[in-house]
Structures are given as C-alpha cells and as structure tokens.
Amino acid sequence: MENSKEMRTWLDDMGLDHPLVIAGPCSAETEEQVLRIAHELKDTDVNYYRAGIWKPRTRPGMFEGVGAIGLNWLKKVKEETGLKTATEVANKAHVDLALENDVDLLWIGARSTVSPFIMQEIADALKGTDKIVLVKNPVNPDLALWLGGIERLHTAGIKNLGAIHRGFSTYEKTKYRNIPEWQLAIEFQNKFPDLPLINDPSHITGKRDMIFDVSQTALDLNFDGLMIETHFDPDNAWSDAAQQVTPAKLVQIMRDLRIRKETDSEAEYNAKLSNLRAQIDILDNQLIDTMGKRMKVSDGIGELKKQKNVAVLQSNRWNQILGAMILEGETRGLSEEFVLKMFKAIHQESINHQEKIVNG
C-alpha cells in the first residue's frame, strides 16, 4: 500500500464543502425508529446514514442487534430519504447480506480489526467490491495491526478505503470511554496522508456532552469527517444511550464547528498552524496527566518515608535523576539549562507533596 492517493478518490468525487458526516443510531431497534431518525437527518449535512444491525457486545445477554431484518429498514431509508446507508460487518455472512441489500458503506469494527484472521475473511468476501469500506482502529493502540487490516483489503482489490479513529481501550479510568491517543492517529496520517480518516467522537467520549470538543480537535488535526451516533430519544436507546445525540443537537454541532478551508496561501498557513497547535494542546494535556501520575507516586514514597521516619530529601537519589535526565534530554534536542529548570521544578513539587504527608 505504498501509494494511498487512489483511496481518496471516492471522497474527492463527493465534492463536499464540509467534512464527511456519517450519522444515525448506534443500533437499529425498530423500523419506525430507523425511519424516523433518517427523516430527521435527510436535509442536514449527513452523507451516510449509519445503523448497527449486528452489535458485537462485550458480554452475553446484552442486546446484540436485530439482525438481517434491519437491512430491509435501511433499504426503506434509501428509498424514502435518498440517504446512502452504512452498517458494521464482522464476518463473511454479514458482508454477503450487506452487499445483497445494497448497503453503500461498510465499516469493520475494532473487535474485528484486532484479528488478522477475521480481517482476511472479510477481505476475501469483499474482494473487488466498489463499495466504500472503512476500518476502525483495533481496541489496543497498535498502529501496525490497524494498517495491516487496511492492507489486506487493499490487496483484495478494494479501492474505496478509509479508516475510522474510535479511540483505544485502557485499564485506567479517564474522562474518555476510549482514550483518543491522538499521537497515534497523527502518525497514521503522516504515513498515509491520502487515506481518508474519519473520527468517531461517540465511542471516544462515551458522553454526548464531550462530542463537540473531540470533533473540533479532530477537524483541527485535518480529519476528513465524523461518525456521530444519533437518536431521537437517546436516553432510552437500546445500546450506548449516554453517547448518542438528537438530530437537532447534531445539526447544532455541525453549525458550531470551526471548519477551516484551504482556499489560498493565508488559509493554508492558518490551517497548518491550527493543526500544529492542536498537536501541542494534546501533548500539553499528556504532560499534565503524566505529572499528576508522577506526584501520586511521590505521595506513595512520602507514606513510606513517614512509616520509616526517613528524611524527605535524598540528595544522592536526586543527583542520579538529574544527571540521567540531562543526558536523556541531550538525545531529544533539549538544552541542559531547560532540563535543569524543568526537573528542579518537578523535584520541588515532589518534595512539597512528600512533606505534607510526612508532617501531616
């Protein structure tokens, strides 16, 4: 997959004046629900109407989708609203049924992307199709695995390809349902700048009130579009209720997003500057998060020192850290002066934390 320019053709051919928008319910629940949402979205920026027909769930006993009958409902969506349709496929049987029912866009979910065997089965079933096929990142932050899945599809003669960034699982509790790991998505773009990349803020956040901010970050990082789960009654949705928005809210989000177009040199400069600043914002947040975790470790050291009645300041240990970090900083292009100032500040904050515990 050395040249990804041919993969952008399907997106360029659409001639959009806004980011690609894929929206609709997490799950198709009833025919009435599917059609009602579609009619509320038909005169908006939505380009593809999404609905989960088969829902891979973490645990048995949860709602796992209505199955093939939902494909008939998607047909009616196309007939009644003119919207193109999209659904997730997880195996050969799903692919065959989706193609038979003329679904326009198929995406492969994170749980499928993680398995090369499943990806090869799906690639073989899709061989030569002219449908659009998007691949979500695997649940774990493994760029090679993500790209490998796309390469299997490309090798099978599938040209209309793209990727969906939906965040990554983590054992740590964070404000996100799936942490975005923006740096990995940026690296993905750097490797294949012409491969369309869509952001899925619904699965990244797990909370509807965070969708706008994540969507804006994605657009600032030059993502090509958004996949946003939409339901006329989100609180009573049969799956992922907390992360779905109403059609009216989706329209408002799309209206409020700052979409930067490159029409001349000044606009191109501003777009590139916004992209770089967005990357800095991401890294700054990661720095603060890391510092917070470091101070929690310092708190643990303070507890141990208190138990053993040991002095907070350990000069030998501090000098070892400082020397090692100065050398490491040199390999990263950081001056000794900067490293000294930074680690002296970190060291002082660590001492403050430990003294509060020891003297507390």
TrEMBL record:
<dbReference type="InterPro" id="IPR036979">
    <property type="entry name" value="CM_dom_sf"/>
</dbReference>
<feature type="coiled-coil region">
    <location>
        <begin position="259"/>
        <end position="286"/>
    </location>
</feature>
<keyword id="KW-0175">Coiled coil</keyword>
<dbReference type="InterPro" id="IPR013785">
    <property type="entry name" value="Aldolase_TIM"/>
</dbReference>
<dbReference type="GO" id="GO:0046417">
    <property type="term" value="P:chorismate metabolic process"/>
</dbReference>
<keyword id="KW-0808">Transferase</keyword>
<dbReference type="InterPro" id="IPR036263">
    <property type="entry name" value="Chorismate_II_sf"/>
</dbReference>
<protein>
    <recommendedName>
        <fullName>chorismate mutase</fullName>
        <ecNumber>5.4.99.5</ecNumber>
    </recommendedName>
</protein>
<dbReference type="GO" id="GO:0016740">
    <property type="term" value="F:transferase activity"/>
</dbReference>
<dbReference type="Pfam" id="PF00793">
    <property type="entry name" value="DAHP_synth_1"/>
</dbReference>
<dbReference type="GO" id="GO:0004106">
    <property type="term" value="F:chorismate mutase activity"/>
</dbReference>
<feature type="domain" description="Chorismate mutase">
    <location>
        <begin position="267"/>
        <end position="358"/>
    </location>
</feature>
<dbReference type="InterPro" id="IPR006218">
    <property type="entry name" value="DAHP1/KDSA"/>
</dbReference>
<dbReference type="InterPro" id="IPR052899">
    <property type="entry name" value="Class-I_DAHP_synthase"/>
</dbReference>
<dbReference type="Pfam" id="PF01817">
    <property type="entry name" value="CM_2"/>
</dbReference>
<dbReference type="InterPro" id="IPR002701">
    <property type="entry name" value="CM_II_prokaryot"/>
</dbReference>
